[in-house]
Design goal:
This protein is α+β, with helices and mostly antiparallel strands. The protein contains 4 helices and 3 strands; from the N terminus they run H-E-E-H-H-E-H. A 3-stranded mixed sheet has the order 1-2-3. Helix 1 packs across helix 3.
């Protein structure tokens, strides 16, 4: 059974997702600074937590977008280290730290492509085939 399929989030899920989103943003930015990777910005755009609070889907936007796939893959490789740092921050708020799964949030890039297309010669509103179809995650 899919944990995320057509489920309404409880207040507890929303609260945990909010705490995780804030702390993840801070931890990821500090890890970037520590690693010396300059010129990369990571923002946590959304966190979804399963009903049993065991898994957190983390959607991260990466700028520049060309590095998004590599950064997302790297985040998934070091997620145990990230989970440990978040657990230290949230030990008084969460009994059990959910497992983290990172996904690339390309919505800002998609919006940018729409804006560029509207400003350009070809208008995607008149010809919707200009823009590529979005992948569902």
């Amino acid at each position: 059974m899919c944990y995320f399929c057509s489920m309404i989030e409880s207040n507890r899920q929303k609260k945990i997702a909010g705490v995780l989103q804030n702390d993840l943003a801070n931890v990821l930015q500090s890890m970037l600074r520590e690693s010396g990777q300059l010129g990369i910005i990571i923002s946590v755009s959304k966190v979804k937590v399963t009903t049993d609070l065991s898994i957190a889907k983390v959607y991260a936007s990466v700028f520049p977008s060309e590095k998004a796939e590599n950064i997302t893959a790297e985040l998934n490789e070091i997620k145990s280290k990230i989970k440990h740092r978040i657990a230290q921050l949230t030990k008084h708020q969460l009994r059990k730290m959910p497992d983290l799964h990172f996904y690339n949030d390309d919505s800002l890039e998609y919006i940018d492509k729409i804006e560029q297309a509207v400003k350009g010669k070809e208008n995607p509103i008149q010809n919707p085939d200009i823009l590529p179809k979005r992948k569902k995650t």
